[in-house]
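Narrative of activities, Objective 1.

The group set out to show that a structural description can be obtained from nothing but a protein's sequence at a throughput compatible with the screening campaign. Below is one input-output pair from the validation batch, recorded exactly as produced.
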Amino acid sequence: MLGLFLPIHHGGWSSSNLPRTTDWSFDYNAKLTQKAEELGFVLVFGYSTWQPKGGQGPTRTEAGLDAFIATASLAGITSRILLISTIHVLYRPWHPIHLAKFGATLDHISGDR
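Output recorded for this entry:
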């Protein structure tokens, strides 16, 4: 299965002080996902990361999108590519029922994708 890690966080796919040509915006990620689908990729993956402001060094996340919401939002502009994300359950008191409802709602909105 060929997939693409989405650069939904400042700095792209890895923590580094090196200059980047990627953008963490939704529009940029939407274009990447549509291109990946056009090229036959099987999936895109939005990974969650949370580095609180005030962190230092190359691991600091200055800006980014929520992985679950951003990846779910791609369902409306794609037709077949598999959309996968992670979600941090320890940073918020998410009850499993809430997560199940989020997934069921997304399944309904996306036409069972």
